[in-house]
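testing teh design pipeline on a random one, pls ignore if ur not involved
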C-alpha cells in the first residue's frame, strides 16, 4: 500500500497524525507522509486515518 496527502485539500486538523503518527506528521500548515510505502502492520491505521479525514485529503494507492 502507498499513501499520499493532497496538500491543497489538507486542513491541518491533525486527525491522521493522531491516528497513525508512524506514517503522518505535521509540517507547517499541512500533514505530510513520512512513510509512502506503508508497512503491513500499519495499513489498518492508515485506512482509518483516510476514512476519518474530513477533507478527504489522504489518497491510498
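output:
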Amino acid at each position: 500500500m502507498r499513501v499520499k496527502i493532497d496538500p491543497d485539500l489538507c486542513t491541518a486538523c491533525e486527525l491522521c497524525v493522531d491516528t497513525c503518527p508512524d506514517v503522518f506528521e505535521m509540517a507547517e500548515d499541512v500533514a505530510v507522509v513520512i512513510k509512502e510505502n506503508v508497512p503491513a502492520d500499519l495499513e489498518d491505521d492508515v485506512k482509518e486515518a483516510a476514512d476519518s479525514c474530513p477533507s478527504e485529503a489522504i489518497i491510498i494507492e
